[in-house]
Design goal:
With 292 residues, this protein is an alpha+beta fold. The chain has two domains: 144 residues, Tetracycline Repressor, domain 2, CATH 1.10.357.10; 109 residues, Formyl transferase, N-terminal domain (Rossmann fold), CATH 3.40.50.170. The protein is built from eleven helices and four strands; from the N terminus they run ααααααααβαβαββα. The protein is elongated and about 75 Å long.
Length: 292
């Protein structure tokens, strides 16, 4: 009886691995259960026996891959021997592996199907909730160990305010200053004190559309392609050497708000990518823009 159960698991796993391989080159619409069975070296009837249908096969493939990756990430972030920064570096390094594994392709295909299939959407939501819980837990743990400071700016000159910020930055040995929603020009003194150590992200393809409400500026100008920019900060508004940019096309039916939402999604990804690039290019040493 035990051997029968093991054989059943082995056949099921073999079919899932075969489905992953076929789906990666054929997509969901082109996936053939006959081809999957041939790839696994088993009769077609085994797919019907183990999964019942093509859709159930692909849904179980997603759950199978999702469980593997979540288990890996939970073990990584639960490793007490690694600092949070080391855990994060390793997690980011896994991205290439995840793309190569076929997980991302499977997820993309199922998200496309989920627009018109409630059952698929339900499975995708459940799978992604596992990642949300992981990230939420990680963020809460990170917040406990991240020093914070509140520095009053009202009634003070810009440079006086910036000098106090600079003192706090030095106190915490900050090596890279990443602005996010900092809606205020930094003083020339501050920029020179931390030259090539301050970066910012802006929701347009600079030098186009600097300043406030860049997304709406691009939309009202009728621009077909806009995007976001990570750049070094100098004393001018939304100015400085570009580190990375990512394009976001304007789609038929877009509003200024929907375009802004899609740009924001890319901003989150691009900022992380840019920070990783800076750290990789310079270790934890002085950052300059010689690699641009």
């Amino acid at each position: 009886m035990a051997r029968t159960a093991v054989k059943k698991i082995e056949t099921s796993t073999s079919l899932l691995e075969a489905a992953k391989k076929v789906l990666r080159h054929a997509g969901y619409a082109g996936l053939s259960t006959r081809e999957v069975a041939a790839e696994a070296g088993v009769p077609l009837s085994q797919i019907h026996y183990h999964f019942g249908s093509k859709q159930n096969l692909v849904l179980q493939l997603f759950e199978y891959l999702n469980a593997q990756l979540l288990d890996r990430q939970n073990k990584l972030f639960g490793d007490p021997s690694l600092k949070l920064s080391e855990q994060w570096d390793r997690a980011c390094d896994y991205l290439d592996e995840d793309i190569a594994s076929g997980y991302v392709r499977v997820l993309q295909e199922l998200i496309a199907v989920s627009w018109h299939d409630a059952e698929v959407a339900k499975v995708i939501r459940a799978g992604i909730m596992g990642w949300i819980e992981l990230i939420t837990g990680l963020a809460k743990a990170a917040e406990k160990g991240v020093p914070t400071a509140v520095i009053e700016r009202r009634g003070r000159s810009r440079e006086e305010h910036d000098r106090e910020i600079a003192a706090k930055i030095r106190e915490y040995n900050v090596e890279l200053i990443c602005l996010a929603g900092y809606m205020r020009l930094l003083s020339g003194w501050f920029v020179s004190e931390f030259a090539n150590r301050i970066i910012n992200i802006h929701p347009s393809l600079l030098p186009a559309f600097p300043g406030l409400d860049a997304q709406r500026q691009a939309f009202e100008a009728g621009t077909k392609v806009t995007g976001c920019t990570v750049h070094f900060v100098d004393e001018h508004l939304d100015h400085g050497d570009v580190i990375l940019q990512r394009e976001v096309p304007r789609l038929d039916g877009d509003t200024a708000e929907s375009l802004a939402d899609r740009i924001l999604q890319q901003e989150h990804l691009l900022y992380i990518q840019a920070i990783k690039r800076l750290v990789a290019a310079n270790g934890a040493d002085v950052i300059d823009n010689s690699f641009l």
